[in-house]
Write a structure and sequence with these properties.
The complex is a heterodimer of chains A (382) and B (497). Chain A is an alpha/beta fold and 382 residues long. Chain A has one domain: Alkaline Phosphatase, subunit A (3-Layer(aba) Sandwich). Chain A contains eleven helices and twelve strands. Chain A is globular. Chain B has four domains: 139 residues, no CATH class; 98 residues, no CATH class; 53 residues; 136 residues, no CATH class. Chain B has 27 helices and six strands. In chain B, the strands form three sheets. Chain B has a two-stranded antiparallel sheet with strand order 1-2. In chain B, strands 3-4 form a two-stranded antiparallel sheet. The longest helix of chain B has 18 residues. Chain B is globular and about 80 Å long. The relative contact order of chain B is 0.12. The chains are: A alpha/beta (382), B mainly alpha (497). At the A-B interface, helix 4, strand 7, helix 6 and helix 7 of A face helix 14, helix 15, helix 22, helix 23 and helix 26 of B.
């Protein structure tokens, strides 16, 4: 039915992941001067234990050692890193920056709805419905605002009542079909559509098989759980085209060295497990990891980093021209930092997303997904 | 304290951890509170107009929706008198609610002693306490304001010591000042041990040269708590504010949770915030100067007033009422009562029927109130909230749960599941006397037919059901099938207020 439709998986690292410590610019001495206690050791630093050193990617950048599971994916050419990437929003506010990034409108103009919702609206084919978009977890992200979305922690718990009751579902559908007699309050159509979509999703999820025996080693927690369910939905071929999952907790103002390794390990392990689990179907899957902004280049007095600018993206998938750190590296010299001391943004995140939308998701109307935005190409796909 | 942990009261309080259903103690408590006022009056005459009853509407905004019979009661008192009474919560007798919550030990436990309790117990009891208050308190407006400030000064219990300390924050910050003066509330929040942990204020110290403080709280103070994102502050203001805020720590041992000022950690140089100079040598008083500056800034009044209007009136409130709310805030120097009163008695509010979509907490509380439920708010009920996307005190980021309706449309299935579980009496620790409710509503002596179904719909919706609504529900099952009630509670009309 929809076996050929590609699947976009969007992993959002909420809280502003520290780009400079996830993918370390180890060839830049300034990095070590700015971060006397937090810096990750060079890949060849004889003073550091092997397990504490960055994992070299291209002679300039290295992965945080806790992202070790990503190294083989990078080596196999399936994973690309985008560095010093971000948005034109300079508020350094999590919420504003996330909003702006997930809505992805033109500079200084709010866009209606989320960018993924606009993609679903403009892509070729039937109107998106029911299970087209999935948010793994207990709430839907802004990027899906305006799209029908099924929010679920697991496929198995998406049930109504103790036993199936078709008449009850029909009655509910009738309640959500009828327009109110006393005029339409705000969000009336949205509420009704959401109710009917929930019921349609329910029907389709009944057809899903039990979890596979493949048993990839997902890490515990919402990210691993979410990616496991997304892989399952992908295998069941129910027409899921986009799936979002959050990985929270990156706001490392304080004792970053104690927080970042676990966050990074969960990320690397979860992506690796997902890749294993998906198997050959990876040809039609693209995973993008993004975060609202990076963190201050210098560390603060509480051994953490404050809100910065230039951030990081990871793109993983069958068609990705990987094994590259895509960057227009601004450098960390004093005069190259954006005041008060942040890695500058030199690649607009929309340029990367636009390539995914156009080249990988087969949607030529990319100017409507990212309106009024100059979109340079970075050759992310072959 | 170990003896205290084993006391019967504590065991009851930890109900979500133990497997207690409606135990003997719960039943005794239920009976007591019934005597004290938590009962369904008989008969009830539900609203009959096709338009939403104005008092039903008001009770959805000034509270979590009507308890059976409350619409008639408030109609007798009059709208303005009711609101004025609600604005003086201490004068409202709340015995029945106090009885319900009396089994919860931790919420009344002094901060340092909270750490004697296992974190799971503290966390669950705080959630249960919030639910019980919202369902049963006669001080409904106060509880709505508690919810508002809980989101505004969000502290997630998931972060380290906040599991224990949010209980103190709820009591000593939010509940202490929910209808007080904004500046007092802000001051309490700024030095609340939970907030100092949550936004890293306790880690904010001067550097060797006085530079590079931790900006976390300073930024949210301006962006979320006072001025708002476009409130005209700069990155430089954030950094200067952060310097004012250096020096506070939260004890982890010996009186854990105690907030102390450590002068050596404080940056005592001169600062300039939003154009105001804070001279050197201010020490501990710097924080008060800073809070005076941001709290009295005209933008703050507008920001808070607008947010209150979005909460009380509509996701996009009319500009007229936002202006009035901001003016009142400004004229009264941030007297929250006065601002809320102006909003609640406004024409804009009266005209905004059904403009809002209930968040999960409100959906659950309004349903329990509407059917006069007997609940002890056990873990099962808390799980329903989690499934709907609103586990209490658990929003991870400092902006709090969203107020706008469209943020909540992806989890309707879990609302349907809650409605079914409530109607079928499948929620552990929660029971509904359906017989009493049907009897009170029956009026005309009919049983379970379309006419009495319509009366139940009128009671739940605050207006007469339209033909399609009634046909959809009446077409399902027969007589008093509880699933018909579940359909009404799942209907679009019950998702609104």
């Amino acid at each position: 039915m929809s076996a050929t439709r590609p699947l976009l998986v969007c992993v959002y690292l909420r809280g502003a992941a520290d780009a400079l410590n996830l993918v370390v610019p180890y060839a830049d001495d300034r990095y070590y001067a700015l971060r006397p206690t937090l810096a990750v050791a060079r890949p060849d630093d004889p003073r550091a234990a092997a397990k504490d050193r960055a994992i070299d990617l291209d002679g300039r950048f290295g992965l945080h050692p806790s992202l070790a599971k990503l190294a083989p994916l990078y080596g196999a050419g399936e994973l690309a890193v985008v560095h010093a990437v971000g948005s034109d929003d300079a508020t350094r506010s999590h919420f504003e920056a996330q909003d702006r990034m997930e809505h992805a409108g033109p500079k200084d103009e709010p866009a209606a709805g989320g960018w993924i919702a606009r993609h679903l609206d403009t892509r070729p084919g039937r109107r998106a419905a029911g299970l087209t978009a999935v948010a793994a977890g207990t709430s839907a992200p802004e990027s899906l605002r305006g799209a029908p979305v099924a929010v679920l922690r697991s496929v198995d718990e998406y049930r109504l009542g103790k036993t199936e009751d078709a008449a009850f579902e029909r009655a509910l559908a009738a309640l959500y079909a009828s327009r109110p007699s006393d005029g339409a309050p705000p969000l009336d159509a949205d509420l009704r559509t959401a109710g009917r979509d929930a019921l349609a999703t329910l029907g389709r999820l009944r057809r899903i098989p039990e979890p596979s025996a493949r048993g990839a080693a997902y890490p515990e927690g919402p990210l691993g759980d979410g990616l496991r369910e997304i892989a399952r939905l992908s295998r069941a071929d129910l027409g899921v085209e986009v799936a979002c999952v959050d990985h929270d907790g990156w706001d490392t103002h304080f004792v970053e060295a104690q927080l970042l390794p676990d966050l990074a390990r969960t990320l690397g392990d979860a992506l690796f497990a997902f890749r294993e689990d998906i198997g050959d179907a990876m040809d039609r899957v693209v995973v993008v990891c993004m975060t609202e902004f990076g963190r201050r280049a210098y560390e603060n007095t509480s051994l953490g980093t404050d809100h910065g600018r230039g951030g990081i993206m990871f793109v993983l998938g069958g068609g990705v021209r990987g094994r590259r750190v895509i960057t227009d590296w601004p450098g960390l010299a004093e005069d190259r930092l954006e005041p008060p001391g942040d890695l500058a943004v030199t690649i607009d995140f929309r340029e990367i997303l636009a390539e995914i939308v156009r080249a990988r998701l087969g949607n030529p109307r990319v100017e409507e997904v990212f309106p009024k935005t100059r979109l340079r190409r970075w050759g992310l796909f072959g | 304290m170990s003896d205290r942990r084993l006391s019967r009261r504590s065991l009851l309080g930890a109900g979500a951890l133990s497997a207690l259903d409606l135990t003997g103690c719960d039943r005794a408590l239920s009976a007591l509170t019934k005597i004290a006022g938590d009962r369904v009056p008989d008969p009830i005459e539900p609203p009959s107009s096709p338009a939403i009853d104005p008092i039903h509407h008001l009770l959805g905004r000034a509270g979590f929706g009507p308890w059976p019979g409350q619409v008639e009661e408030v109609r007798r008192i009059g709208k303005e008198a009711y609101i004025d009474a609600q604005l003086d919560p201490d004068a409202i007798d709340d015995t029945a609610c106090a009885l319900r919550t009396s089994v919860i030990d931790t919420v009344a436990t002094p901060t340092s002693l909270l750490f004697e309790f296992p974190p799971e117990q503290v966390e669950v009891e705080l959630q249960r306490h919030a639910l019980l208050r919202a369902v049963y308190s006669k001080r409904q407006l106060y509880e709505v304001m508690v919810e508002f400030w809980t989101d505004h000064f969000n502290v997630a219990i998931g972060k380290s010591l906040c599991r224990h300390l949010k209980t103190a924050d709820d009591r000593d910050v939010i509940r202490a000042h929910a209808l007080g003066r904004f500046r007092d509330l802000l001051g309490a929040s700024a030095l609340s041990p939970a907030m100092l942990v949550y936004l890293d204020g306790r880690a904010n110290a001067r550097g060797p040269k006085g530079e590079r403080p931790n900006e976390n709280y300073a930024r949210e103070l301006m962006e979320l708590h006072t001025l708002g994102l476009h409130g005209g502050y700069t990155q430089k203001d954030v950094m200067e504010a952060a310097r004012c805020l250096t020096g506070f720590v939260v004890r982890e041992e010996w009186a854990p949770g105690l907030v102390e000022f450590v002068p050596e950690r404080h940056d005592d140089g001169p600062k300039t915030v939003l154009g105001h100079v804070i001279p050197a040598g201010g020490g501990r008083a710097d924080v008060e100067r800073l809070l005076d500056i941001v709290a009295s800034h005209p933008i703050t009044g507008w920001f808070i007033g607008e947010k209150l209007c979005r909460t009380f009136i509509a996701d996009r409130p009319p500009a007229s009422i936002v202006r009035r709310a901001a003016d009142v805030f400004h004229e009264t120097d941030g007297d929250i009562k006065k601002v809320v009163r102006a909003i609640l008695l406004s024409d804009e509010l009266a005209e905004s029927t059904w403009a809002k979509i209930k968040r999960p907490f409100r959906l659950v509380v309004s349903a329990l109130r509407a059917v006069g439920a007997d609940t002890h708010a056990k873990g099962d009920l808390l799980d329903h909230l989690t499934r709907m996307g609103q586990p209490l005190f658990s929003f991870p980021t400092p902006d709090g749960y969203p107020t706008q309706g469209d943020a909540w449309l992806g989890t309707l299935l879990w609302r349907f599941n809650f409605a079914l579980a409530l109607a079928e009496d499948r929620i552990d620790g929660t029971r509904v006397d359906w017989e009493a409710l049907h009897h009170a509503l029956r009026g005309d002596g009919l049983h379970g037919d379309t006419a009495s179904l319509a009366r139940l719909a009128r009671h739940l919706f605050g207006r007469a059901p339209d033909e399609t609504e009634l046909a959809a529900v009446a077409g399902y099952g027969a007589g008093r099938d509880p699933r018909r009630v579940a359909l009404l509670l799942s209907a679009p009309a019950f998702q609104r207020y």
